Amino acid sequence: MILNHCLTCSRPGIVVFQTNPEFPSLFNFNDFQLKSIYSIPNETKVCTEISQSKSNESWCDHPLPRAKFIIYLERKCLYYVSNVCVPIGLLSGLCLISMSINEDGTRLDTSSRLAITLTLLLTGVAYKFVVADSLPNLSYLTLPDKYIWSCFAFTLAVVLENAVVPSSCGVIKMFMTYIAWNHTWHYVLQLSTSR
Q1: How do the pLDDT tens digits run along the chain, 195 residues long?
Q2: Last residue of some domain: 57, 75, 93?
Q3: Do 187 and 132 have their domain in common?
Q4: Long-range contacts (CB closer than 8 Å, 24 or more residues apart) made by 80-87
Q5: Which pLDDT belongs to residue 86?
Q6: Is 85 in the same domain as 22?
Q7: What is the domain-level CATH number for residue 133?
Q8: pTM over the 0.85 mark
């Protein structure tokens, strides 16, 4: 990540920006407010670019002197992995508890399974709202965003499995019973007509 700070002087000709290679600018990382999230990969030197603004960017339609200070930062990923990705992953993994069985070997009833998975889904959404401030506000999805959405998709798939499979199993049983009765009656009718 690049941290830019740009200074433009509104008085051309009076102030002149220039670099001093003998005494380069340094970044005081100890006073940096976001040092728990970012680190400096190389050194604390500040890159300086001296240029002029475009004439359409100034109030006087003339190019103005500009100094741009650039600091290269690196995001510490362990913070996001330990505080965002692992908890959301654990919440999604806990959805598999709904697939457990009772002591007598039967599957949990549909309401119990849905209660477990919907509670975990709501907990995940609430946690997403809590950690949303710590994630960068960008117009595109970052890798942690994609991971969080895939965890939500997994949880939603488990919710749908818990809601649809028991009812579809009932429909499948009714359909199979209908086919069996139909086949039986067809066989009975064949026997009665053949005599």
Answers
A1: 677 777 777 766 677 777 777 777 777 777 778 777 777 776 667 777 777 777 766 667 777 778 787 878 887 788 788 888 899 999 999 988 888 888 887 878 888 888 999 999 999 999 988 888 877 788 888 888 888 899 999 999 888 888 887 655 555 555 556 555 555 555 545 555 555
A2: 75
A3: yes
A4: 80/134, 80/135, 80/144, 83/131, 83/134, 84/131, 84/134, 84/135, 84/144, 84/148, 85/144, 85/147, 85/148, 87/127
A5: 92
A6: no
A7: 1.20.58.390
A8: no
| CA nearest neighbour of 52 among 86, 21, 23, 16 | 16
Does residue 121 share a domain with residue 68?
no
Question: What crossing angle do the helices spanning 143-194 and 86-93 adopt, rounded to 10°?
Answer: 10
What is the number of domains present in the chain?
2
29 and 108 housed in the same domain: no
Domain containing residue 133: 78-194
Say how far apart CA 18 and CA 68 lie, in whole Å.
11
